[in-house]
Amino acid sequence: MPRLALIPTIALLLLPLAQAWAAPAWQTEAEALPPANLLLDTEVVADAAASGGKAVRIPLQKGQPPYSVNFSTPPMTMQGTVWFTFYLRGENMSAITDPLRITLIAHDMQTGGYAFMKAYPVYGIGLKPTGYTTVSLPLQTALRPEEYRPAVLVQWQSGTEGAAPVAYLDKVEIATEAYVAPVITEVFPDKIRYEPGQKVEVRTTLANLTAAEAKVTVVGEELTGIAGKREVFRQDATLAPGEQKDVATSYTLSKEEYGREIRVRLLQGAKEVDAASEYFHVTSIPLWTSTSSNYDRGTDYRDMHTIFYVQPASGAESWRSVLFFKKAHSDRTEYFSWSPGDISDLSPTEDPFPGGEGRLTYRSRTTIRQQLAMLKSVGMWPVTYVNGTCWAESGYKLFQQHPDWFLYDANGEVAHYEMDRQQILERRDDYDFDPNTYPTIFFQGTLNHSLPEVQQYIAQQYIDCGKEMGFKGVRMDVRYLEVYPGERGFDGKEIAKTYPEADKISAASIKNVKALVHKEIPDFTFGYNYAAPEEVRDMMEAFKERCAGGGWMLDETPCTYQSKTSPYHVWKAYVRRMTSWGDQVRKFGGIYNPFDFRRGGGKYVVDNIYSSIIRLIASGRFACYTNSRLPFGDLGAFGTRYSELLFGANLDWLEEINGQVAVKAAAPVWWEDMVYWNKSAAGKRQLIVHLLNPPAVAEVEENPQSNLNPPVRDIQVTCASVGGAKPTAAYLLMAEPMEPDGQNEVRAVKLEIKDVGGKATVTVPSVIFWKMVVFEW
Amino acid sequence: MRHLSAVTTITMLVLAILVAPTSAQQVGCAVAQQDGHDVVKMENYRVQLVIDPSRGGAVTSYSDKLAPTELILQKPFSGLCMDHFQEQTWPGEFLEVPYEYKIVSQTPEEASVMVWRQATGIWRGTLANPKLDGILLEKTYTLRADSPTLTCAVKLTAPEDQSKVFSYWMQDVMFAGGDYDAATDRTFRPSARGVRSTGYDNNGHYGREEWMRDFSAGWMALVDTVKKTGLAMDTDYNELRINYANGGNQTNEFMFNTLYLPQGSSRTYTVRLTPIVGLDKILYVGPEMIAGWHLTPAAGGTGEMDFQAVRSAQAVQDMQMAVTLVGGADTSKQVKVGVVPFGALTDKPQTQTVPYTDAPADPLVVRVEVQGTEAGGPQFAVSMEDFFPGTYQWADNIQTDMRTPIYAGVRPSQKLSLEKPDNLAIREPWMERYLYFEGLHDDAYQVANAVHSTNWNVTKDIIYYRYGGSWYGELTDFPYDYDKLLSYEAIILGGISKSGLKPIGMEMLHDYLLAGGGMVVLGSHGAYGRSQLKGSALGDAFPVEMSDSVFDLVPTGGKPVKYGPDKAEFLGYTSLTPQATCYFLHDVKVKPGAQVLMQVDGKPFMVASEYGPNKARIVCIVGAPLGNPQNGQTAFWQDKGWYLILRNAIWWAGKKDDHFRK
């Protein structure tokens, strides 16, 4: 993680080595704010706990403008990170929902517009139960000092029915940084994912904002596994006063796979004056550790992904999104529903073309090809979504030419067609044509995947989309080269009369298409929808073939599990469903990609946090729910760094616990369905015990306040000997802090092993949401 | 067991005594003043209600004396038997507008009140629906002294000089139990998936199922499942199009099929509204009874079922239920539970319990065959069925893929009763008029070029075919108006199926042929065998006998299209090039007397004949515009002479012989 991105929850800040606090450049008692700046029902009240006995009371009230407090300060000189510190206390504030949103602004003195702006939610969990808490929020400004006019907006971000939170603001301070030594502003490995043994080029950007020339040494340390560390580069540099400089270094990866941290230390003489890190993936199979952080709900964010396949985008916009996702440790991008006809039109020759599977959202072939090149330049793996059916005009034409290539139902029909829509589409090249008059796609048919000529046709489509468009793989939806009993060929005969027969034909079809494509593009990847146990129970051979060799296996059915008709809307049942199936997919060689509730997440914050944690524990690769202001940590960064312990090919889930491990705590802690054996890349046997502080409410989407159980403390984890040998080491791995008001940090801490009744025992101080114990032999 | 509690049972008994004897109380019917205008109040031993002519002739107040509370919110757009046409945007022209009224009969045993209004077809100031203009809507409410049921007969009559086309919609907006609860007020509707219970909240993955299209009988009921009171309604299943419940439980509405009414003719829809007391899970509603049930499993395939029955429109002196439990996931596993006897049905729920053993594993389907005797002797028999998902409170008839029902029963087919003009004859419009049904790939046929070439000024209508989803075929439109249908010179029938035409469409197109209309039938993906018209009067009118198989397209290997053994005058002066190739032919047999005008490799390609008393002309093109032309070939539908051949066939079918004789 770049150091500058660390956002402390409260004001207990450790000063970066190269920086120093200046005295607050501006401060005020809240009650001294002009009354005109207190909006809605905000008012000055007496408060014995506040300095001066007065505070500003900010109750939740919705209105226009939506701000409860809105003030600016006199202009001031700002540089680097500027800290806005608020002395706050809350009443009736939920722990992790309905926050107070504080927006920090530095106005440009010339234009009056926003030069810099950042918004942060402040949650109840970050405030002390009594008295005032100092909440310091950073605003990144220019490295060189300049004058700005700061401003602050405060508003409630509350949507929970019945919520009535109140915040009290005692005082506000603004302080800017002063630099006493050079700093690292960015560590940038050239790619987010490498293959073992590849060369890594690391660009470290330094800035010397002091008044003196600085001679520094840049030292790179690569961290692997849980505790592996080696120095991989060391380079001297000299920076003139005010100079920014990129230091280019490189090294060659070892043959070991899985997550890496490259930690760059900046030395001035022997003294470390700054340090910063970044994580990346090392895998021989593309996408094997493909997890990442989703948009950070702990600050302001905007959609950065739809420009890849929906909206028109400039080159600059595209590159900004590429860097955004690399920073989120994402190595996979999927272009969803972009093509004119999916499996019958994956390399359109028109430019622009009617995209969105022929829904007439016009797309640029040139732009897509340019974006794909950008993504690949930073090691990302762009894949194309493929609706595995023939859609729209290309499908319609293919059907006219080859009706004998298609599947038919017992009525002799293909999937669907709407001839009125076809007539609308005919007029699409008119200047005044309105695409909204064509809301649905007029034709859809499914190819008969049992036919060798169809397999060849599909393989050629994939080869063309790889070679002509630049995609690195496909992810099939709707159909995945399979056939089912009851489906018929052109002659009306059932292709397979039974599921075993259909399974066999489907597996062969999948295998053949993969082989045909791999002849031309050896590392082309395949992905598939319909990877839920309910969906594959009758087609296990085809399922295994889909998994084999790193198939991306989208388990979409969990998007319905919040439904009360699903037995898995009970958290306990959900855990076992996900971990057991993730283990199965991994053992078949697949990459498990479970969907979230409702696809985009459950109703409440707590649902999203637990869903992400449980799916990670289940070897799920996905973009994790992220909120840097809440104490569950950066799950995407954690999954990237410790991918071996979450996604390793050697993991072996324990279906039943038979004395291998025991967990004791005063409060309930879930672990039984979350224990794995592992053999590390370094060849060590490991026992992984995930410790989950259970959801406070047993069912999904039944906790609108997102109430939490208190942290579970002093958890004893006891591990049995293996072959008479006790573990030689134990570690506690976490993304969350030790205490709710602590700082999120991806880290591993060595635990002391004690002998309790002849068994190796460690004590975990606390679990807020999730921590992981690893015993190692 | 989920019997009525003892307290509830006693309460019911007391109430029943209080309102008994049922038949001794006369039916009341009187005009009263309410808010300065006339209303009609009706009452019998069981219900009391108000009909408000000023508010669309709806029932604006309704109370069940066994559960006395007002079911209808006293606000506009609330009430029972509110009239609407599906062709109009809600609220349409009938809601909350004045109706005429009169008491048409009144005896101690029975009273009838009629309200009526004439439709205008006007919406927002313009004549938006001319086919509704002039329809007389007469609604007659009948309440008998000895029955809890209010009968509402809606008679729709076309003007003496105009035919009409409409789709009637009866809306009932009320609160079961007198108040609204989003979760526990439930609508019960029979479907192929069992009796569906829907609320605004607390539904399974199917959601509120507002537009229920897979209903399997003509009834629905809205019940406050806590108070166990509500209102049931039933009508003729054959007339229904959709059982609609706004919000899942906020209204109960019957949407009727689209209907053509000849000049001066009428159609009457009868809806019976019957109060419910003592039931919280409905199994059946009909004029014979309202039935409810529960199933309480024990262990190992054992358990107990209880059935409740109350009287409905008709008095029943006895009946018995033969109960079978069927495996929901495997219907071959069945166990006959036994026969449950009931005595004379009354307003008080009569509950019978029956234990069962050896039942298949959950989920289960309960099938009940009822035989009974009405008061006075007539016998009746009815069937009912429901799905029991298991004891897990949120379980449902859906597999864990959250898409597929575990069990889907059979919907009975609906029987048609169309109104028709007295004289089925083709009209003689002054301008040529053609109707084209376009199916998949029929656009390849150059029908537009052909029709554009028929005359300098023709009227062209096109109806598109859609296929997909649960509803199979669908047409974007249909001339349900016989006057319009019979005005076409010829109809070009592309690849559309019987599921798109539906029985009404098939019958009307056959009527068109009986009237002497012309038809050109195009071969294509959806034509002939796949149309599944074989066996229908329409399909059997064609000059070719279609295959029994929907897979009737046969590859030719790419053979040229040539003239056939029979000659036709309309094919003179037109020709295809020698390269015109056909790749797929429908597998058909030429009927005796039909002429094979064109052929491919010795097989029929174009066949023609006359049909019916008015010598309808029908041309069947048996080739399909499918295939991939190779070098040196021209697909026949792309051949430069094709559209003229098609044009001439349309002329001939439309009896425009003078065109090609010029």
In short:
The complex is a heterodimer of chains A (777) and B (662). By secondary structure, chain A is of the alpha+beta class.
Please provide a written account of the structure.
The complex is a heterodimer of chains A (777) and B (662). Chain A has 777 residues and is α+β, with helices and mostly antiparallel strands. Chain A folds into 4 domains: 161 residues, Jelly Rolls (Sandwich); 100 residues, Immunoglobulin-like; 264 residues, Glycosidases (TIM Barrel), CATH 3.20.20.80; 116 residues, Golgi alpha-mannosidase II (Immunoglobulin-like), CATH 2.60.40.1180. Helix content of chain A is 18%, strand content 34%. Chain A is built from 12 helices and 43 strands. In chain A, the strands form 10 sheets. In chain A, strands 1, 2, 3, 4, 7, 10 and 12 form a 7-stranded antiparallel beta sheet that branches. In chain A, α1 runs parallel beside α2, α5 runs parallel beside α6 and α6 packs parallel to α8. The radius of gyration of chain A is 28 Å and the shape is globular. In chain A, 52% of the residues are buried. The N terminus of chain A is likely disordered. Chain B has 662 residues and is mainly beta. Chain B has 3 domains: 202 residues, Beta-galactosidase, Chain A, domain 5; 89 residues, Immunoglobulin-like (Sandwich); 229 residues, Rossmann fold (3-Layer(aba) Sandwich), CATH 3.40.50.880. In chain B, the strands form 8 sheets. In chain B, strands 30, 31, 32, 33, 34, 36, 37, 39, 40, 41, 42 and 43 form a 12-stranded mixed beta sheet that branches. Chain B has a 9-stranded antiparallel beta sheet with strand order 7-8-11-12-21-18-17-14-15, with no helix packed on it. The chains are: A alpha+beta (777), B mainly beta (662). Chains A and B meet through α3, β27 and α4 of A and β31 of B. β27 of chain A pairs antiparallel with β31 of chain B.
